[in-house]
Design goal:
alpha/beta, about 500 residues, three-stranded mixed sheet, nine-stranded mixed sheet
Length: about 500
């Protein structure tokens, strides 16, 4: 058995149609179906917290893939489970019926992501970001470049990790549609709270990815092929052996390669269509090349995205072969879908938008971004349908302002209010700020009181904020090894 393979405990997967719901958009908006896939192999209190936010906000019943799977690769992160995210998700996508090909599939980390906004907002923002990304591709390569579309959106982060900077996975990443003075004069330098803090979010993060099932299937098929191709030592390694065995079993390294190769191919296509020969590019002065490239990698300017001045991995794409690397991948650059807290913990805060924002933001200093959060809510929150909790308790003084009257996790640098919070930075935040989620008190009240004193979830003592969801008879998942599982069974609720 390959060292990248894993074993199941219990029965083999029996794929059944997962439960999906249509978006609860206001009339006239999209009604696309959404499926949520959670790669997870064992119960954990943080898995149950993720599920609680899914249930409370009215998302479709999620599907867990890789449940009860064991991984025994000690040289890899999480013993190889991260690569299992690719293979198990691919199995799920391959099992879907053709009529599900246009469904949106959201694949997300199961143990550190919380929702704060409902599915209608997620779907609406996905569709907007997809349109904007497609328009950028057309502007860059040419409006006649049929086939260049952004249909798959990954999370975005500040660091190209774990791939090495000299590889195409990193240096070919495109410049981001983000203000280049986001952190003032420190933007995209190594000056800040740490060497990555002042960077703009322009690198892929695999914490969540969303796209149509058919496109996601093709993407994950390619990722599966790359696992086999890169199982051994990478010949482009810089001598540290950091890239051995797919960067020690990192699924993110695989998707970085796919994204980097796609963008390299797009730039190759752009130059060929423009008749802009490589020798012409190299004839430009350094200042001219920087002005045209515009990207900075960990403080180092990328003066030529196809052939940077520093030592780098090389690639040649034959004419008319560029589209073989096209997967329609783009990034959630301004955290409209989710916020990655790693290297960015101080970029967001819980704010009430019916109050002055400045007094709510504490301990900012000259290394932080200027406050760009706005008093007024984004249009999709201001005019969209509100969740039942805000409707039911509209007469309560604490909630009579709707969205503006509840604490919302807000990105201070962009002014966006993310749908999701990805706690991939300081992990203890999953305990420290759990009670800040706006719907917790209302979820308990709307579902009735429950005696949850001395309760445990997956063997861990917890507070009772979200346990009422289970006692109210809601929640549950579909698993690929055991079929449906109730909230109580999955989270091992007991005293």
């Amino acid at each position: 058995m390959s060292k990248l393979q894993s074993t199941h405990v219990g029965p083999q997967p029996s794929y059944i149609a997962p439960i999906v719901t249509t978006s609860d958009h206001q009339a006239g908006a999209s009604s696309r179906k959404l499926q949520i896939v959670l790669p997870a192999n064992n119960p954990d209190v943080n898995l149950c917290k993720t599920l609680a936010t899914i249930t409370a906000l009215g998302y479709s019943t999620p599907s867990i893939v890789g449940w009860q799977q064991t991984f025994n690769h000690s040289e890899m992160m999480s013993e190889g489970s991260h690569l299992g995210k690719i293979t198990n998700t691919l199995n799920y996508l391959e099992a879907l019926e053709p009529q599900n090909d246009t469904d949106l599939v959201l694949v997300m980390d199961a143990y550190d992501i919380w929702f704060q906004l409902p599915p209608s907002i997620l779907i609406e923002r996905y569709e907007r970001l997809a349109q904007e990304g497609t328009a950028r591709a057309a502007q860059r390569v040419g409006s006649d470049a049929a086939g260049l579309k952004q249909t798959i959106i990954f999370a975005a982060g500040k660091r190209c990790a774990p791939n090495q900077s000299h590889t195409i996975a990193c240096y070919a990443a495109p410049d981001a549609p983000i203000a280049k003075d986001l952190y003032g004069v420190n933007t995209d330098t190594v000056i800040g709270r740490n060497k990555y803090y002042s960077g703009r979010q322009r690198f892929l993060n695999s914490g969540y990815v969303i796209g149509p099932a058919a496109d996601m299937r093709r993407l994950f098929r390619r990722a599966s092929v790359l696992i086999a191709e890169h199982e051994d030592n990478d010949p482009t390694d810089n001598g540290s052996h950091g890239s051995d065995s797919l960067y020690h079993g990192s699924d993110q390294s695989i998707f970085n390669i796919i994204f980097g190769q796609q963008e390299y191919a797009r730039e190759t296509l752009r130059r060929r269509r423009m008749g802009f020969a490589q020798r012409t590019w190299r004839a430009l002065s350094g200042t001219e090349r920087l002005a045209r490239a515009g990207a900075v990698l960990e403080g180092t300017p990328v003066d030529d995205v196809l052939n940077p001045s520093f030592t780098h991995e090389t690639m040649f794409i034959e004419a008319d072969k560029e589209f073989e690397y096209e997967y329609g991948v783009g990034l959630d650059y301004t955290s409209d879908l989710g916020h990655q807290t790693v290297n960015s913990e101080r970029d967001a805060e819980w704010l009430h938008h019916d109050r002055l924002l400045e007094p709510q933001v504490q301990d900012r200093n000259r290394f932080d971004c200027p406050l760009r959060a706005k008093q007024q809510l984004p249009e999709d929150l201001a005019t969209g349908q509100q969740p039942r909790q805000l409707q039911v308790y509209d007469g309560d003084d604490a909630l009579n302002s709707g969205w503006a009257g509840v604490p919302l996790y807000t990105h201070l640098c962009y002014g966006t209010i993310p749908v999701m919070i990805h706690h991939n930075g300081l992990k203890d935040a999953r305990e420290r700020v759990w009670d800040r989620l706006w719907f917790q008190t209302d979820a308990m009240r709307s579902l009735g009181p429950a005696d949850t004193s001395h309760s445990t979830v997956a063997g861990t003592p917890v507070d009772s904020h979200y346990l009422a969801l289970a006692h109210g008879g809601r929640g549950g998942v579909w698993t690929d090894t055991r079929g449906p599982m109730s909230w109580e069974e999955l989270c091992a609720i007991g005293e």
